[in-house]
Amino acid sequence: KGRRVLCQWVKAKYAFMQAHCGEFRVCAMCRVLRVNRSGYYAWLCSPNSERAKEDDRLLGLIKHHWLASGSVYGHRKITTDLRDLGERCSRHRVHRLMRTEGLRAQVGYGRKPRF
């Protein structure tokens, strides 16, 4: 879990370096920020990882199925829908993506009182 936080920091450092590359030399910023120069140049070529690109694609499918269900389905039913389409993804990954986007299942519904 700690690596996830550190990786975010590295990406933030790379973005800072890109914004200030006109003012300072890249090798000096790498030394001060304690990041690898090769990592910075690799990030410049592809700022989003393959997993992030795949997550974005899956998120589009998840939103489509969630809206098609009337914002009712949770991560379990959406995972089943995706697997029926032939997508390979775990229930935990779908849950994580839905949680980060704020997509929640509708739990219960209001009942009319009986008189």
Automatic annotation (TrEMBL):
The chain's coiled-coil residues are none
Q: At the top level of its lineage, which domain of life is listed?
A: Bacteria
> Which InterPro entries does the UniProt entry name for this protein?
HTH-like_dom, Transposase_IS3/IS150/IS904
- Pfam families tied to this protein: HTH_21 (PF13276)
Q: Which residues form the HTH-like domain?
A: 54-107
Q: What PANTHER family is this protein classified in?
A: TRANSPOSASE INSF FOR INSERTION SEQUENCE IS3B-RELATED, TRANSPOSASE INSO FOR INSERTION SEQUENCE ELEMENT IS911B-RELATED
Mind telling me what this protein is named?
Answer: IS3 family transposase
Source species of the chain: Xanthomonas populi
